Amino acid sequence: MGAHREVPSEAGTETGSETGSETGSEAGTEAGIDSEADEARHTLIRNIVAQGGLTDPAWRAAFERVGRHLFVPYYYVHGSRGYERLWGEDPDPVRRRRWVRGVYGDEALATRMRDGELISSSSQPSLMALMLEALDVRDGHTVLEIGTGPGYNAALLSHRLGDAAVTSVDLDPEITDAARGHLSAAGYRPTVITGDGARGCPQRAPYDRIIATCTLPAVPSAWPEQCAPGARILAPVATGLISLNVRATAHGPRAEGHFLHTPAYFVPLRGASPLSEPLARPGGVPRRAIGDELFRFLLTLTAGSLDPRDALSLWEREERPQRERYGVTVADGRQWAWLDDPEGPYTWSLPG
Known about the structure:
By secondary structure, the protein is an alpha/beta fold. It contains ten helices and 14 strands.
């Protein structure tokens, strides 16, 4: 669920008109769409590889085998008359081709709206590939996914590890029902749970890996508790991706690690406290700093803990640190972000 703009829903577009019997002409159209989808998918994969992604042959094979179009039967885009929905069964062949090209573009797609609010999306494929490779799964690992979305990421995990190894949780029953349908039609049957992702899924714990596809204000304390020793948690926090290694201690699990280099913008975890967004122009902070994405990352990460002017002073004193120098620790019933050293001079409490 990557970065995108919110779009309004269209009344009566998610049921009814998307189904129908298949005539001979429709079957030919279906074959044509499948052919276009295959070609577009291979082009997308080649582009991701050219950018340095999908270096693991197992993940490349998963992307080659699992069609994104099976999980995104429709999505919302800007149109000449505002927002419009593109869908795979549109009777207009030009719009169907637009749908296919969009599905296999390297962009996040808005897939579900409610009362004008975006509640679910399909993540940017290159970012998905980066996250799955950073998850560092091994044969025999079990994975908990937080944020099922349309089910595409769960299908990739199931292809790599097997259905029995994958559990996916989403709060909204409409989302999980649709995802189960997409997954079943594509030949995958991981366990899809309707529930609060912040609570994890204790009945299927422990997990070797936890991956979230929604932005969090902090890492929920329930997640490390449901991890096996040596597990990894990968989650969007602030506007970055934190990778935490989990180890057992006498006082309970300790999860700790650094942010990855890439920025990441996702739909927020529903039910969680909203992220504190930095002001567009905090007092005393020059425009050049506010325009810098790395400084805005620091502002978001330290919102409520560090005055923006103090954040600017730190940022300049430390020579505008990259994301990889920041980290997060979850231990002893508390959680904090830090620069360079979890016990060093630069630490900030996170909600948890």
